[in-house]
Fold this protein.
Amino acid sequence: MPAPGENMRINGQRLWDSLMEMAQIGPGIAGGNNRQTLTDDDAKGRALFQQWCEAAGCTMGVDTMGNMFATRAGTDPDALPVYVGSHLDTQPTGGKYDGVLGVLGGLEIIRSLNDLGIKTKHPIVVTNWTNEEGTRYAPAMLASGVFAGIHDQDWAYGRVDAEGKAFGDELRRIGWVGDETVGARKMHAMFELHIEQGPILEAEGKEIGVVTHGQGLWWLQITLTGKDAHTGSTPMTMRVNAGLGMARIIERVHQIAMAHQPGAVGAVGQANVYPNSRNVIPGRAVFTVDIRSPDQAKLDTMRAEVERAAHAVAAELGLGCEIEAVGHFDPVTFDPGLVKVVRGAAERLGYSHMDIISGAGHDACWINRVAPTVMVMCPCVDGLSHNEAEEISPEWAAKGTDVLFHAVVETAEVVG
Ligand code: HGY
Ligand code: MN
Ligand code: MN
């Protein structure tokens, strides 16, 4: 029986075919995906994933946040399972691999274990976490956050989207409210494979990212209140322009992030002015600041500087200013023992690798609070993600999944 890492490889073609088939569900308009959480397309993607898992001999469990858990039995039913997964929901203009690679990479491990006739002591559970993206329902990683006890389920059920539809109602509407108590499952370990979503691995010529840490983030939703007025007949000195305030604050966010280099980022990706009419000075602006850093002190300092700048701009322009934190998690340190297992797998397989800090947030960042957790990354072309042109190579997908395979099987302990 080959010990992990001698000659075990996943079936790269089968993995790629599954990625391409899943990408047919909720297609974008430019080759990527728009399979947003709790939409009918999300439901279709879930059903296909469940069909594949059951065809691979897994039993599917679903909790009250719609998190999906496909279990391959171990030889010791009392042994805590090894979890491996990510998310199937996408951005509105998302790519085919963000999250999906981690879920279908987990499924490929099950398929490969079946092919090789390998048994493990610990069960292995492939997971799809609901609403990782946080684009339709803030915050990101909502369901893994409830699982980890960060968010209360009733609060999560009450989150509403831009059309006022509540999370709980939409989860019921698509028929994916499970019967398991969220967070009741205990884990031996949790692994997540994910594309880097940045340029480092490709630029360094590395095939594998051994993720030691994840940067922390704040999402600050700012509401500026001014006065609707005619854009033509209102003198410049009489305007109370919320749109102008938003523009000045967006510039200040950029300056604050630049002032904290290296290791800080900041931008505003979601912005709305009201009434959003060509010839009305916006009386209201609502936008979300996204600031991040792997350094706790920098992250907290940037938050304070953004809030100070927002209130100062609002005062200059006579605007009302409300700031609500709609997303947050501190910088993450993944389990050092599992980091060693991942690094050892990459070395055994002879794949080029480097330690890396995750720039993006992931479900693993919350699960790390309740179980030993680690991530594996593969490069993506030009570091591009959250863009329909997101691309990876079949080789990168296969090698990342090979490392995941070896690390998961080593942790789940081969029997016989
Ligand atoms: O925002 C993030 O970092 C993740 O893509 N949800
Ligand atoms: Mn993701
Ligand atoms: Mn994403």
User: Anything to note?
Assistant: The mean pLDDT is 97. Residues 181 and 223 are 36 Å apart (CA to CA).
